[in-house]
Write a structure and sequence with these properties.
Keywords: Lipid biosynthesis, Lipid metabolism, NAD, Oxidoreductase, Phospholipid biosynthesis, Phospholipid metabolism. This is Glycerol-3-phosphate dehydrogenase. Its EC number is 1.1.1.94. The protein has about 325 residues and is α/β, with parallel strands linked by helices. It has 2 domains: about 5-180, Rossmann fold (3-Layer(aba) Sandwich); about 185-325, Orthogonal Bundle (N-(1-d-carboxylethyl)-l-norvaline Dehydrogenase, domain 2). About 55% of the residues lie in helices and about 10% in strands. Helix 2 links the parallel strand 2 and strand 3 (about 60-65). It binds NADPH dihydro-nicotinamide-adenine-dinucleotide phosphate (NDP) and 1,3-dihydroxyacetonephosphate. NADPH dihydro-nicotinamide-adenine-dinucleotide phosphate binds next to helix 1 and helix 4.
């Protein structure tokens, strides 16, 4: 029997627990707050995210004791925004992951350390890359809750490992495929959040679909150049784990990053947009991390630079997007 631990109580964790537990794989599910555990045990719903999803408690066991949740699992899925993962895992001994497969469902990087989640797990918990997977692909938790047809790409160095994890996810409305480019899809998932945030800013400033299409096209060049600089390789960026993920985030009504950017474009301060959202836009943190990494790489990244200037240097969104407008073609 495969056993799964899911760490995080937000929207994506909720969607993943739905998918896996409905396939009758037992899931131990870690929450930060005892009140959320009690709510799930009493009402069979997550209290605060995708609360329309009902769970069969025969297969889902919520708890706040992280070590116990992880203890017996073969697969440990991390679904906490990257900015909080260090604080969530800080009291765990490295040995706890020794015989487990770690799966990052996170589309963000660790602030200050400026590293990928997989690199962080390798450096801080000695989890070799051969024991790690990442979940990528254009897939919003909200559409999983509605059981709309969705596609996931599972990255791992060994496609057989990725394939084993895919088997836990496939169902009537989820198709999952293994991908070898684990680093490429992990970086691309981080980059697309920055672009969606910039698209949201432009939308908030009343730019239309014509401008956004050009922004997204230029973004693909920016992503390609960055990926080649940070992790060179042969990859087809038209694949759904790359272009597909960018498109869904840049255009969807469900996108946290686009929504956050839209508020900033409309004049909200960064702080008030974050408070208003109640969800986490990974792109906010990613902008700073990629900007800092790029000080060494020196890739031409006009969209990331504009987002950095708006979010961290308090330069007017209207000014930055007007500058971008002149650079696009
Ligand atoms: N939502 C989606 O459709 C998808 C999301 N992802 C990725 O999944 C990851 C999780 O995002 P998502 O589920 O959307 O998050 P949400 O925005 O839905 O929820 C926010 C999450 O952050 C947690 N959180 C907030 N503050 C803290 C803190 N100080 N310490 C620890 N945890 C905190 C919340 O916990 P609490 O409720 O206890 O406050 C909650 O679990 C992200 O990396 C995202 O990019 C990937 C694919 C799809
Ligand atoms: O990555 C995601 C969907 O693939 C979720 O991020 P957004 O909510 O910003 O779109």
């Amino acid at each position: 029997m495969e056993k799964v631990a899911v760490i995080g109580g937000g929207s994506w964790a909720t969607a993943l627990v739905k998918i896996i537990s409905e396939n009758k794989t037992p899931v131990k599910w870690w929450f930060r707050h005892e009140a959320d555990v009690k709510h799930l045990q009493t009402y069979c719903h997550n209290a605060r995210y995708l609360s329309g999803v009902t769970f069969d408690l025969q297969y889902v066991e919520p708890a706040t004791d992280l070590a116990k949740v992880i203890q017996d699992a073969k697969w440990v899925i991390l679904a906490v925004p990257a900015a909080f993962i260090e604080s969530v895992l800080q009291n765990l001994p490295a040995a706890i992951f020794a015989d487990k497969f770690l799966v990052s469902a996170i589309k963000g990087m660790i602030p200050v350390k400026n590293c990928l989640v997989t690199e962080y797990l390798q450096n801080n918990f000695q989890v070799p890359m051969s024991q790690q997977c990442v979940i990528a692909g254009p897939c919003h938790a909200e559409e999983v809750a509605l059981e709309k047809q969705s596609y996931l790409s599972i990255g791992a160095l060994d496609v057989n490992l990725a394939e084993s994890f895919c088997a836990l996810l496939r169902n009537r409305y989820v198709r999952a495929s293994p991908v070898e480019d684990i680093y490429g899809i992990e970086y691309c998932a981080v980059m697309k959040n920055i672009i969606a945030l910039a698209c949201g800013i432009a939308h908030g400033l009343n730019y239309g679909d014509n401008f956004q299409a050009v922004m997204v096209s230029n973004a693909m060049l920016e992503i390609e150049a960055f990926l080649q600089a940070i992790h060179p390789g042969v990859r087809n960026l038209s694949g759904s784990a790359y272009l597909g993920d960018l498109l869904v985030t840049a255009y969807s009504q469900f996108s946290r990053n686009r929504t956050f950017g839209n508020m900033v474009g409309r004049g909200y301060s960064v702080k008030s947009a974050q408070v208003e959202m109640n969800m986490i836009a990974e792109g906010y943190y990613a902008v700073k991390i990629i900007h800092e990494l790029n000080k060494k790489l020196r890739v031409n990244m006009p969209i990331t630079s504009a987002a950095y200037n708006i979010l961290y240097e308090r330069i007017s969104p209207a000014v930055e997007i007007a500058i971008l407008k002149e650079k696009f073609h």
